[in-house]
């Protein structure tokens, strides 16, 4: 069987981007072919290299080109504070929005038993080992304020309590059901400062 024409393959491939449907995929494909072939070639090169070379930090699970990410490798960071987020994007937003000097732990999702996502799938066994090291004194729960995010926060809170580690939850200003990624920096900073112990 013949494969579809390249133009059609390009449009279909572009649709893997979030928010890109048939129409915008087509618009992008024509734009690249007619107006920006150099930009498209550059995009293709960087895309391929990023996919090959960016993995996950062995300690905090965020995206990293190296075994340890630059934050985990930085001895100036306060190892007694550990901020738990769902995604590398959430981590980047917190890091940009506020003056936080502690470390992070990236779950890569949230508990979702119906989808087969349990504690192991979001790295909670590895997190528990980290807590057992005894260095972490405060866990800051910055999971999304959704039902799943709250359930995940509760689970981690129970884990931390079993090891007598204080947990705080960012709250104020982050709308219920919202996602950190879409909260502005000032609101996030306020939510972070106003975190309360649970
Ligand atoms: Zn790391």
Structure description:
Among the domains are: 44 residues, Helicase, Ruva Protein, domain 3 (Orthogonal Bundle); 92 residues, 3-Layer(aba) Sandwich (Dna Topoisomerase Vi A Subunit, Chain: A, domain 2), CATH 3.40.1360. With 198 residues, it is α/β, with parallel strands linked by helices. Strand 5, helix 6 and strand 6 form a beta-alpha-beta unit. It is elongated. Bound molecules: zinc ion (ZN). Zinc ion binds next to loops.
Entry summary:
With 198 residues, this protein is α/β, with parallel strands linked by helices. It has helices at 6-14, 22-35, 37-53, 88-97, 124-132, 147-162, 185-193; strands spanning 55-56, 63-64, 78-85, 102-106, 138-141, 166-169, 196-197.
What is the helix fraction of residues, given as a range? 40-55%
Strand content: 5-15%
Q: Say what the CATH topology of the domain at 78-169 is.
A: Dna Topoisomerase Vi A Subunit, Chain: A, domain 2
Q: Based on DSSP secondary structure assignment, what is the total number of beta strands?
A: 7
Radius of gyration from the alpha-carbon trace, in angstroms: 20 Å
Biggest sheet details = 5 strands, mixed
Give the number of helices: 7
**Poorly predicted runs:** none
* Average pLDDT reading: 91
Structural class: alpha/beta
Oligomer: single chain
Overall geometric form: elongated
Major beta sheet, strand line-up: 4-3-5-6-7
* CATH top-level class of the domain at 78-169: Alpha Beta
Separation of the first and last Cα atoms:
61 Å
The SSE order reads: HHHEEEHEHEHEHE
The CATH architecture of the domain at 78-169 can be named as 3-Layer(aba) Sandwich
Bound compounds:
zinc ion
């Amino acid at each position: 069987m013949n494969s579809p024409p390249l133009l059609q393959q390009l449009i279909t491939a572009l649709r893997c981007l979030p928010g890109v449907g048939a129409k915008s995929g087509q618009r992008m494909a024509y734009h690249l072919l007619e107006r920006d072939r150099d930009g498209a070639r550059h995009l293709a090169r960087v895309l391929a290299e990023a996919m090959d070379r960016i993995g996950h930090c062995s300690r905090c699970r965020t995206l990293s080109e190296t075994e340890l990410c630059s934050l985990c490798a930085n001895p100036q960071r306060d190892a007694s504070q550990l901020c738990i987020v769902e995604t590398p994007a959430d981590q980047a937003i917190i890091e940009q929005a506020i003056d936080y000097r502690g470390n992070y732990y990236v779950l890569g999702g949230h508990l979702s038993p119906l989808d087969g996502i349990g504690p192991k799938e979001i790295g909670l066994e590895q997190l528990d080992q980290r807590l057992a090291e005894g260095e972490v004194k405060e866990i800051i729960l910055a999971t999304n304020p959704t039902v799943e995010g709250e359930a995940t926060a509760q689970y981690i809170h129970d884990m931390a309590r079993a090891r007598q580690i204080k947990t705080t939850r960012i709250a104020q200003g982050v709308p219920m059901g919202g996602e950190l990624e879409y909260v502005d920096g000032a609101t996030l900073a306020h939510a972070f400062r106003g975190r309360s112990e649970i």
